[in-house]
Amino acid sequence: EKMSLNDIRSSFLNFFASKNHYVGKSYSLVPENDKSLLLINSGMAPLKPFFMGIDTPPNKRMVTCQKCIRTGDIENVGKTARHGTFFEMLGNFSFGDYFKVESIQWGWEYVTEHLKMPVEKLWVSVYEQDDDAYEIWNKTIGVPAERIVRLGKADNFWEIGLGPCGPCSEIYFDRGEKYGCGHENCKPGCDCDRYVEFWNHVFTQFDKDEQGNYNPLPKPNIDTGMGLERVACIMQGVDSIFEVDTMQQILEGVTTLSNQKYGVSSKSDISIRIITDHIRSVTFMVSDGIMPSNEGRGYVLRRLLRRAAKHGKQLGIQDTFLTALVDRVIAVSGQAYPELIEKQEYIKKVISVEEDRFRETIDQGSEILRGFVEELKQQKKTCLSGENAFKLYDTYGFPIELTKEILEEERIEIDEAGFKEEMEKQRVRARSARQNMEDEGWKEDIFSKLSADIRSTFEGYGNTQTEGKV
Ligand code: ATP
Ligand code: MG
Ligand code: MG
Ligand code: MG
Fold first, then answer.
1. Structural domain boundaries, residue 16
2. Where does residue 440 rank: exposed (0-12), middle (13-18), buried (19+ CB within 10 A)?
3. Residues 179 and 83 in one domain
4. How do residues 294-319 score in pLDDT, each as one tens digit?
5. Rounded CA gap, 352 and 360, in Å?
6. Same domain, 218 and 300
7. Total domain count for the chain?
8. Is ipTM > 0.95 here?
9. Are 31 and 72 in the same domain?
10. Nearest to 343 by CA among 271, 398, 289, 268
11. What is the pLDDT of residues 182-211, one digit of tens each?
12. Where is the Alanyl-transfer RNA synthetases family profile domain (predicted)?
């Protein structure tokens, strides 16, 4: 009998409750009193005041399952087996209480005795200079040296600017050669989907000062994060997080509405997965009070929602469809997040209004594009100028992929170089506009990794000419 995602969540919370942890609820996706972050992206993020001693935690040991959004992963969504923009992070935390030994021991106990993952499939990584962690894994736990890798700062050291920081240690599951990239040095830390990183243990033991010194903290902390969808993927033996029991329900909604089969074409599979993911982000964001807008979180919401709608259109869905998927998200997650059920009608209303607005944009853009095509045909030309392609995209918010698709049918090309040139000009204009922004939340540069279509529209923000166009 395979463990469902919802069962895994409660089993994790119960396990750490049995180790005297206070079981906390997920915090909102909207950070409280934290201007450094646009959206909560880890279990630890909302607990920062406890780690920094600004606030007193309910207990020195705590466990949560936290809803998270990582727009920085958007390019991976649909392409890797393991990334979503929305996911749930299981985590146990120690505020100056237990440290490395317990964190590693309990982690191992949970994974091998409760989840019963086969020991020989498990690998671990430690920070290259963290001999303590290496010894614990190797000597105390008994993980053979062949399955412990030492990784550098980029992968296994956690720090954000100054303040508390420290080495990490990750647990990986080897899904076997069929998921590998085939390189001879493919091992944990490789970008492919063979060794899935599922649990990160952060050992916050230093305090980095202005001079760049790493001073030992008198009372080090523990902060761990385990992706619930990833564990479920491993436990259920499915190919990707999109096929775990809960996600599958949403994915099937997408295939039914679009009348597509999953697993037939990689292009439509990517669209199917993107919609499956984005509708979760959108549903949870709206339930936490975020409204579509042209700035900040509202902008992230708007772009994710429209990106989902656009992929739906590309899959051939004619009608509006997002609210039907919202029902599926709530059906599988509502028990764990009762706010979804309480606000179900409200969430659907907000999403349907925005989806309608987007359709108007699409209708208007299609009309204008039809005009361009007519003109080109009359002039016996077969290439749309970069300027016009950009105008459609920038002024009318018409997705460039749709322009391409429609033009392909007419055997017309886009002047790509010209289009890029216009984008670049826009980027420069936006950069100077942005220098005037004071909102601290932007420092994180959360948009830098959004896909090109999303990014350049964002960079128009602050420029009054582009206000209201998305
Ligand atoms: P990866 O290297 O695979 O991108 P990460 O090192 O960025 O993961 P962490 O910041 O260590 O991830 O987060 C802790 C855990 O949260 C990960 O071990 C993973 O299980 C999960 N996780 C991280 N990002 C995602 C995501 N985009 N979608 C689903 N789960 C995620
Ligand atoms: Mg990552
Ligand atoms: Mg990683
Ligand atoms: Mg990690």
1. 5-236
2. exposed
3. yes
4. 888 998 999 899 999 999 999 999 99
5. 12
6. no
7. 2
8. yes
9. yes
10. 289
11. 998 899 989 899 999 999 999 999 989 999
12. 3-470
